[in-house]
Amino acid sequence: MTSRFYKVSAVNILGDCRKHEYAEARHCAMHLMRLLIPGITLHQIADYFKRDHTTVVYAGNRVHDMLITDGKFRAKYDDTIYNIKKLERATA
């Protein structure tokens, strides 16, 4: 779902590229996993993205800061959450 809103492929989100648009989408995806999947650990998220758990912590902090300071990011983030929840309701 995050890849759809960021117009970035899942391969690029899971990949190693540090381009801004890929990193932002990756950070958002990590943060959303932590927020929306009850009981998931930092290590599980890190394993999924083939990264260290400290990267997941950094991603969470980065997203938190951007939510406070960047209105466009906040709107895209809120829209992503809305659509994830909408999809959950439709498949439930």
List its traits.
92 residues; Chromosomal Replication Initiator Protein Dnaa, Chain: A; 6 helices; mainly alpha
- What percent of residues adopt helix (DSSP H or I)? over 70%
Number of domains: 1
Q: How would the global form be characterised?
A: globular
Rg estimate, integer Å: 13 Å
- Approximately how much beta-strand content do the residues carry? under 5%
Describe the largest sheet.
Answer: none
Describe the structure.
- It is globular, with a radius of gyration of 13 Å.
- It has 92 residues and is mainly α.
- The longest helix has 21 residues, at 71-91.
- The protein has one domain (2-91): Chromosomal Replication Initiator Protein Dnaa, Chain: A.
- It has helices spanning 2-6, 10-14, 20-36, 42-49, 53-69, 71-91.
- It is built from six helices and no strands.
- It starts with a helix and ends with a helix.
- Helix 3 packs across helix 5 (53-69), helix 4 (42-49) crosses helix 5 and helix 5 packs across helix 6.
Break the fold down into its secondary structure elements and pairings.
Layout: H1 2-6, H2 10-14, H3 20-36, H4 42-49, H5 53-69, H6 71-91
Write a brief structural summary.
By secondary structure, this protein is mostly helical. Helix content is 79%, strand content 0%.
